[in-house]
């Protein structure tokens, strides 16, 4: 959200300097070159034991091979990410839009 406000605020100055018109102030929500790494360690018991952990691992493996499961898998991940994005004052729609390109970009469907 802050980035969008900054882009809109600076646009008139860029127009003044260049003599052009800033028609698109948000260039892209596709953030495929931004890398975020997250590391988390949770005790198996906190998740319900080894059976639950095994099912989580299996769900991840299926999502890697099946784009239909991947869509559901990604939605589940976003259930955790969206509240954080919202709480930090960022644009949840932009984050969602950035995620939507992934199935297209790294499609697991082979013809």
- Proportion of helical residues: 55-70%
Major sheet attributes: none
The number of helical runs is 6
Rg from alpha-carbon coordinates: 19 Å
Separation of the first and last Cα atoms:
40 Å
Strand content: under 5%
Q: Structural class, from secondary structure content? A: mainly alpha
Number of domains: 2
Q: Average the pLDDT over all residues and give the rounded result.
A: 82
Number of strands: 0
Low-confidence runs (pLDDT<50, min 5 residues)?
Answer: none
* Element order: H for helix, E for strand: HHHHHH
The rough form would be described as: elongated
What do these coordinates show?
- The chain has helices at 2-18, 44-47, 50-65, 67-87, 92-100, 102-105.
- The chain has 6 helices and no strands.
- It has 2 domains: 1-29, no CATH class; 31-111, no CATH class.
- It is mostly helical.
- The mean pLDDT is 82.
- Helix 3 crosses helix 4 and helix 4 (67-87) runs antiparallel to helix 5 (92-100).
- The protein starts with a helix and ends in a 6-residue tail after the last helix.
- The radius of gyration is 19 Å and the shape is elongated.
